[in-house]
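Ticket reopened. Same input as before:
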Amino acid sequence: MTKREIKPKPEFLERMKKLLEPRDFDRYEKSIQEPLLNSIRCDTLKIPPEQLKKRLEEKNWKISQIWKNYPEVMVIEGKYVRQGSQIDIAPKSLSADFSAKNIVNAQKNFKLTFTDYDNAKNNLTINKISQRSALAKPGAEQKISSEARQILVPLEPGELGRSIEHLLGYYYVQELASMLSIIALNPRPNELILDLCASPGSKTSQISAQIKNTGTIIANDINIGRIKILASNLERCGVTNAIITRDDGIRLCEKFKLQNIKFDKILLDAPCSGEGTIRSSPKSCLMWNPNTIKSLSKLQKKLFKGAFEILKEGGKIVYSTCTHAPEENEEVVDFTLKEFQGQIEIEKIDLPVSCRPGIINWNDKNYDKEVIKSCRIYPQDSNTEGFFLAKFKKLK
Amino acid sequence: MIHLLSNQETQEILKKLNEQFGVQKIPGKLIKIGNEKIFLFNGDFSDGQIKNLEKITFIERAGIYFGKIFDLTEEIRLSIEGTQILKNQITKNIFEIKKEQLENWMQGQELNIQTGLKGIIIIKHKEDYLGCGKASENKIGNFIPKSRRLKIKS
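Engineering reply: fixed in the latest deploy. New output:
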């Protein structure tokens, strides 16, 4: 298997250098070359987390529930295979740190064939290097015992999406950072919630699971192709409380305003330049350009303005993007705080990952000091994608 | 165009569901989109609110795809989610497939087995409800949609 290399454009890297300290930038550069963890969210509308975990463990998958207060969030660290299976494996990580990160690194670099456990123990058939160290510690992570004689290897590409449990909607394959918007929004049962840019539906289905299919979710998107994916995902996840609308987000907000339809909670997971997604979608690097950032920033401000006007008094709105660009993040927050001064306050967010404060100056622009209550999520901090969130309360 | 089913229309569907599968109660509003497809919505929005929403924007879907009514036989074929939602109420025309048949079923293949049943039946494996099949003398026809089929490893 060849090692993939993500090559961001020089101008993008220059911007990241301005955002990060030199050593931090080095960590960032390394982190984007690492594949992401295999994370899933148990669909609690269909199955309790412990039951799903048990089922997946019966498939010999190694499951970790990494966030104490969110048992539905799971990371698949790999699967145990019997001797004699042909597997992809990492020589370094077997004997030492068998973290999910290392498993994935392993997959990229080496191919190892176990013909027989006893043979393997003495004479492993390994491409490139000797692998005695692989079996040096039959304890902790390797689960190699005289009975099981199994070893942990990475899942095959696409394996997460091919399981019966996935097809039946028992879990949703979702990147960890993408789950944070709903943790921040904290929807409550019986609320009326708007997901303004809802496709592909990961966050809509997360809302629905959290409020146990009560209340009503309006899940909107503008693009028919994306709506088909949204509808398919909501169906698979057993979402019965959502109405899917197809409309331009800004126009839809105007229509709701005219009808005096107001929401308890709004998620504005805005269209963005996707800088944070380059680990899962290296093509983001090719598509990236600074002009798009400027136009997206204008669109995001308009969407936020429209959404804020249809929020109930005391209602909450979460603004999130999967980009690092301050123009699409803090600048939008700053615009909002100024535009709705006295009517809005930004709230602190408690998240289960490492979160950095929003920045208050960028390219000679100074932002409102309250902007620091926003959250910047970097891949080098919690081994996730890059993300940005801010949460607001409507005062009047 | 969506059509919110009246009480009478809902009762007719419940009657069919009762005859076919022993179902006693439909847990939500039924909505028809197109000629055959029925959706189940159990959000708080009232019929009036849904109609108002439809006046101002385009509603693609409301709720979840629940099942389909066949014009000719007037039988109802529940979707995978339809069977999962009603699983605690389903008492008849259920066929439990074996582990070795599960993969074939999820791949969208018909099963060449005798069930002793005829017409639309519920397929399950252990605690998993897997949608409906159409049983004839020697086989069960498969309706697993393409997007939900188990892909054969290349």
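The interface with chain B takes residues 46, 156, 158, 162, 164, 167-169, 190, 192, 213-218, 220, 227, 231-232, 234-236, 238-247, 252, 255-256, 258-259, 261 of chain A (CB under 8 Å). Residues 127 and 301 of chain A are 54 Å apart (CA to CA). Please confirm and we'll close it.
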